[in-house]
TrEMBL record:
Signal peptide: none
Name of the protein in question: Uncharacterized protein
Biased composition (Low complexity): 98-133
Source taxon at top rank: Eukaryota
Region annotation Disordered: where it falls in the sequence: 98-140
GO BP terms, alphabetized: protein N-linked glycosylation
Gene3D superfamilies noted in UniProt: 3.40.50.11350
Regions crossing the membrane: none
GO molecular function, one term: alpha-(1->6)-fucosyltransferase activity
Amino acid sequence: MPTCSFRFPFLWCPTFGFFVLARIIVAFILGNTAQCQRLALFNINSKAVGGIKVGASEKGNIVEFAEAVTAEPRAMEENKVSAQEKEKIVEGAGVVALEPSSSPSSAPSLEPGSEPSFFPSSTPSSEPSSSSSAVEPKEDKEDKCARIFLQIPAQFSEHGHGSQLNNYLLGAIAATFLDRAMILLEHPYGKPYAGGSQFGCPLDTFEGGFTAANFSALKTVDTIPKVREGFPIGLSRLVVHPEMLSRGCDIPCVDQKYTYDDFFHFAQADENEITCTSGGIKQNVLVFHGFGLLNFMSSKNSDGVALLEQMKRQREGAERWAKNMKATPLEAKYFSFSTDQNRWDCLLWLFHKSGFMKLQPWIERDIQFYLKTFDLPMSEEYIAIHVRRGDKLIKESRGPVVAYWKSQGYDDEDNLPKNYIPFVKYLEQMDGPEHCNNNDVGETEVLRRNVYVATDDPEVVRQEIAELPNHVKNDPYTLMWNNCYELKFYFSPLKRNGTFFHISGDGRKDNCFSRYERNIASMTDMEILIKAKTTIVEFNSNWGRLIRNLRVRINAIEIRRGN
């Protein structure tokens, strides 16, 4: 299925009761563009709302290629628990069901032949295990660690998940393109977040045993127990940085004894490339923080060509770049011939296939237990809609909101009926009544669809749904749409507004247990969005673009089969 974006020429293709707005890309391998399924090389099944133009002009947004795509998701297993169990799990934000892991950084392995799940928490078979006892030859490590890409994630720590993870993905793309080992330099422990991470504190964080009961009690206090030695901090508490990127290298410049502040100073300098040594071994290091990385991607070479443009079209070194992402020789060859958007989609697929951006095992565990509290039947196909309001209404979403209301005849930007795009606009992405089917006796076939709504403003969205016409059996959250679609809406069981997409804002003032609760709620919504049959997202949001990036899979069957 094709990509959804309002920036490019498009055609309409019906899929799962939705129209998909698609980019026309050159399918030089698949050839025939007359068939919707064969038009694109990558499987897409999503819709953008609001006609958002995505680019690098606004700080904090990932550059152009990080818009949204989707891949056919795997259905999640349905888990049933009692109402009493649900209440307990919601109270602890999904962390109450398991005791802490014995190891702070280990992850379970996939069964042979199984496919990695969203943010797979295991080491792919193609990647060397970081726990291997084999001693690497010194000269090999010297060569791999001579060129370092050092990324400092903390500058974006007050942003949401989408901004932080998109920036991490951007760093991985740059590091593999430049053929450098990528190392994460986290902020010193305790700066600036109590508990050591903007993503909060799972039970596994602390020394000693903790149960669900005393975890809930800890959420009400300002002090925290002693953090386990070596437990991940910063961004690394959320994701496992893979050896595919680090190449087994450590923090560089050991002989110079540079501090975190020294490296941050290098990242802010006009010249962020330094030369140093570790154990007498010479190293060349590029140091980046969040905004510096965005600027770097837009920087131009002596011919006036931006690095981003080089990445999109350059043939020289493209196969090596792909192999740095664990591509097979065939995949690397194909990648070298791809250009523009098709190359970015291929790149994202290679990262996904390699097992990049694995969740830490405690995050994966607590998401699964939190999912048990949901009423959404996850063993069935479902639609997911991302409705971002909150802080996005102030800046990033303001333009689309104004444009929408102008299209409805409201020209006074300071006196709009609402400061957001109504939820009904999202539903209008569905097929019209002309696409309804009749059965053998001429009656309209009713197509039942479960719809999950991920939003940071659930009460308002619930009210909007309740005010729509044609409700079924007086159920405020089930209605008929366009004569033949029976839509049943589901929300997260966590009641509080502002929870679903926010670890930012007042995070430094927040108790680390409350931050973790919000973190798990957000990541659970993310998993539901990624695994939906059809997803509607907003491309003006880092969250929406991240969802797209994590749903890419290749649609060329022969390449997928390795032929």
